[in-house]
Amino acid sequence: PSAKPVVIIVAALVPSLGIGNKGTMPWRLRREMKYFREVTSGNNDGSSNTNAVIMGRKTWESIPEKFRPLPGRRNMVLSRSYPDGDVQHTKNPHHHQATTTTATTTTLFNSVESAIAYCDQSVDINTIYIIGGAEIYNQAVNNQRVRQILLTEINSDQPVEMDTFLEFKLDNHEWIKQNRQRLREVVGHHVELPQEEILENGFRYNFTLWERK
Ligand code: NDP
């Protein structure tokens, strides 16, 4: 088993890097959700392998019950009170069509490192995505296994109510913002990448890629 890519994927308001409010997202952006689904579900190599999504317990709870576990991805939830590597089978009445166990299984871990180590050992897992929330992102950014950040940069002309923020800066000391061609390479051809800024619900946003120097 070899070390797999570990990628942070996050949508944040710029420049404050706010990402949440009262346990949910400060916005509802349909095309952003579609991008997230395409990036994290898709596989680049044409194999039947799946990707893993690692998230904190609070982000897990913020996903409406009928949408979790996220289908087609290995869901890994972090809590300090979970037994490491415990597997939970979640019956999701909305996943009638599920033919694999990936849609109904959630694996619980009590550290970011052990979730990554588990993924490294699983031959059927490709890319490991860190999908939030703030507490998990703020730790993961210091983990040297994380080499890439897929950041949706959101702009708003109106004030946005937020209480949860990324605590790191993306500047050119440690992270380099890559061009669209490199973003395309990283997300794969199955992902719809618009040419221009997207306008939705009063927000303007762009999909960007940052790589560790
Ligand atoms: P998190 O989702 O980061 O979950 C925090 C919990 O994760 C902790 O309470 C703890 O669970 C567990 N945890 C944290 N660190 C570790 C560790 N090292 N090992 C084991 N378990 C750990 O919560 P936040 O409140 O920080 O973020 C949630 C907010 O972020 C929401 O508002 C959500 O909507 C938003 N969000 C935004 C995203 C975006 O892209 N804009 C994406 C995802 C979330 P326990 O207490 O059980 O021990």
In short:
InterPro entries: DHFR, DHFR-like_dom_sf, DHFR_CS, DHFR_dom. By secondary structure, this protein is α/β, with parallel strands linked by helices. It has 5 helices and 12 strands.
Task: Provide keyphrases for this structure.
single chain; 213 residues; alpha/beta; Dihydrofolate Reductase, subunit A; 10-stranded mixed sheet; two-stranded antiparallel ribbon; 12 strands; 20% helix; globular; binds NADPH dihydro-nicotinamide-adenine-dinucleotide phosphate; Dihydrofolate reductase
Plain-language structure description:
Residues 5-212 form the DHFR domain. This is Dihydrofolate reductase. Its EC number is 1.5.1.3. Keywords: NADP, One-carbon metabolism, Oxidoreductase. The two termini are 25 Å apart. The chain is of the alpha/beta class. The chain contains 5 helices and 12 strands. 20% of the residues lie in helices and 31% in strands. It has helices at 30-41, 57-62, 112-121, 134-140, 180-187; strands at residues 6-13, 18-20, 50-56, 74-78, 86-89, 105-109, 125-130, 146-156, 164-165, 175-177, 198-200, 203-212. The chain has a single domain, classed as Dihydrofolate Reductase, subunit A (3-Layer(aba) Sandwich). It binds NADPH dihydro-nicotinamide-adenine-dinucleotide phosphate. Residues 10-11, 19-20, 23-25, 55-59, 62, 78-81, 110-112, 131-136, 139, 164 line the site of NADPH dihydro-nicotinamide-adenine-dinucleotide phosphate (NDP).
